[in-house]
Amino acid sequence: MNRVKNFKNYDEFQAYIAREYLKKHKVYRYRTVKIDEIDDNKIVNVCHWFCEENNLVQDYVFFLDQELNLQNGKEYLGKTIRVIIDRPLGSHHPQHKELVYPINYGYYEDVYAPDGEPQDVYVLGVYEPISFFEGKVIAIIHRLDDVEDKWVVAPEEFSYTKDDISEATRFQEQFFNSEIIM
């Protein structure tokens, strides 16, 4: 799926999402018309009809929430944000006490994720427990099987690869199917 795309308006975004959702379900034709030949104004309705016919309305809503969250995250790539750390390095997960945070973890309070909570953020490059951090958004961990994406923030002068990010966040991300977008 081509995830690096700019949209002129919400209608164009909805048409893109409808086509991607249909492709995800290997629907390349609806009735007798190729999906890529259906007008942007009609493809959303076609997708809704497909979802209703196949009892996939909730699945489509989940997919749309994921994509909206991803597009929102992409707007912040390269920007400096202030992260509030609520799980500092060395702390335990509130529900899963066996999970210890090997990095600082917190949230960006100016953006809300689809779960209704502030956007979750991993902080790399700081090797002591902290309460706040200001740094650059260097990546999005886009979870394909969860509605929440995680942002990755680091000091301006640090550079990380996708492999570096994957290794640093494996303690928690190992439980999800995800991709790293930089």
SSE diagram, text form:
Blueprint: H1 10-24, E1 29-30, E2 33-34, H2 40-53, H3 57-76, E3 80-87, E4 104-112, E5 118-123, E6 132-143, E7 150-154, H4 162-173, E8 178-181
Parallel strand pairs: 5-7
Antiparallel strand pairs: 1-2, 3-4, 3-6, 4-5, 6-7, 6-8
Mean pLDDT figure: 89
* Unreliable spans: none
* Number of domains as seen in the coordinates: 2
Under CATH, the topology of the largest domain is which? Inorganic Pyrophosphatase
- Tell me what the CATH architecture of the largest domain is: Alpha-Beta Complex
The number of helical runs is 4
What does this protein structure show overall?
The structure is a single chain. This protein is an alpha+beta fold and 182 residues long. The chain has helices at residues 10-24, 40-53, 57-76, 162-173; strands at 29-30, 33-34, 80-87, 104-112, 118-123, 132-143, 150-154, 178-181. The protein has two domains: 10-55, no CATH class; 77-181, Alpha-Beta Complex (Inorganic Pyrophosphatase), CATH 3.90.80.10. 34% of the residues lie in helices and 26% in strands. The strands form two sheets. It has a five-stranded mixed β-barrel with strand order 3-4-5-7-6. A two-stranded antiparallel ribbon has the order 1-2. Helix 1 (10-24) packs across helix 2 (40-53). The chain starts with 9 loop residues before the first helix and ends with a strand. The relative contact order is 0.13. The mean pLDDT is 89.
